[in-house]
Specification:
Layout (H helix, E strand, L loop, with lengths): L1 E5 L2 H18 L4 E4 L6 H12 L9 E4 L1 E3 L10 H13 L6 E2 L8 H14 L5 E4 L21 E4 L2 H7 L12 E4 L2 H5 L4 E5 L5 H9 L17 E6 L9 H9 L9
Parallel strand pairs: 1-10, 2-3, 2-6, 3-5, 6-9, 9-10
Antiparallel strand pairs: 4-8, 7-8
Helix pairs in contact: 1-2, 2-3
The structure holds 2-amino-2-deoxy-6-O-phosphono-alpha-D-glucopyranose.
The site of 2-amino-2-deoxy-6-O-phosphono-alpha-D-glucopyranose has 14 residues, from helix 5.
């Protein structure tokens, strides 16, 4: 795993965006795994800047969202379908027909979940999966004790997650109880994982995921099983890492041919 510690949240976005940009530059039809939430906002803003400057284009790229609430209407401003359209598809110029979000309104949710995994596979697989991390260590909506082998499926949101996401709704009661999320097994099949985290609230979860034991209790620790996982952190999110100096040292001495890889 590569751990990159940078001074500010803006720098997290810039470094992570450079990674996504390099994937798309090599493969314009790349399949991008898209995360919602606050964490990737800086990354998306930096990508938007690159699109506006004419440096990259997502016109031929494909996108798969990580997760969606169950039972929320498609046009609800906080459905992840709406969020992905607003934060990613429109500003980055994706073709909406090439971007999919799990169907949390399907009558047969289990079939819809299986179909989502099948669609990812049919696309050729995700080239780079963008991830945030919850304060309880979740990635996507894979709450603690999610199986490392799990596929896209229905989960019950942890009370802590509903509390954290209540800021997007008028009250916590309005935060859906269930979600459909790519499984940890699904996420691990992406060719590259790119996790971004900022702020002290994430420091414990980040340290547990990177340096703690491999445990379904900390779903983010699944990154340790991946051969090409990168974590980009600001100083506050890196504050609990025991080997922070070593990560700074390895990044400072990264061979130039390996930068952006
Ligand atoms: C969520 C999302 C995750 C996200 C995480 C952290 O609820 N389903 O994809 O990574 O929580 O959210 P944030 O980035 O807003 O802190």
């Amino acid at each position: 795993m590569e751990i990159i510690i940078v001074p500010t949240p803006t720098e997290v976005g810039r470094v992570a965006a450079a990674r996504v940009a390099s994937v798309v530059a090599m493969k314009p039809s790349a399949v991008i795994g898209l995360a919602t939430g606050s964490s990737p906002q800086g990354l998306y803003s930096d990508l938007k800047r690159r699109v506006q400057a004419g440096d990259i284009s997502f016109v031929d790229a494909h996108g798969f969202a990580l997760d969606e609430y169950v039972g929320i209407s498609l046009d609800h401003p906080e459905s992840y379908a709406s969020v992905i359209t607003r934060d990613v598809v429109v500003p980055l110029g994706f073709d909406p027909a090439r971007v999919q979000v799990p169907d949390g309104r399907a009558n047969d949710l289990e079939s819809a979940a299986r179909a989502y995994d099948a669609a990812i596979r049919a696309s050729g697989g995700i080239d780079v999966q963008i991830l945030g991390i919850g304060t309880n260590g979740h990635i996507g909506f894979n709450e603690p004790t999610s199986s490392f082998a799990s596929r896209t499926r229905i989960k019950t949101l942890a009370p802590l997650t509903r509390e954290a996401n209540a800021r997007f709704f008028d009250s916590i009661e309005q935060v859906p109880m269930h979600c459909m999320t790519q499984g940890l097994g699904t996420i691990l099949e992406a060719r590259q994982l790119l996790l971004v985290a900022q702020g002290s609230a994430k420091a414990k979860a980040v340290a547990a995921a990177i340096e703690g034991p491999l445990s379904s209790f900390v779903p983010g620790s699944a990154l340790q099983l991946h051969q090409h996982a990168t974590v980009v952190l600001d100083e506050a999110a890196a504050a609990e890492l025991q080997l922070a100096d070593y990560y700074r040292y390895t990044y400072a001495n990264k061979p130039t041919w390996q930068l952006d890889q």
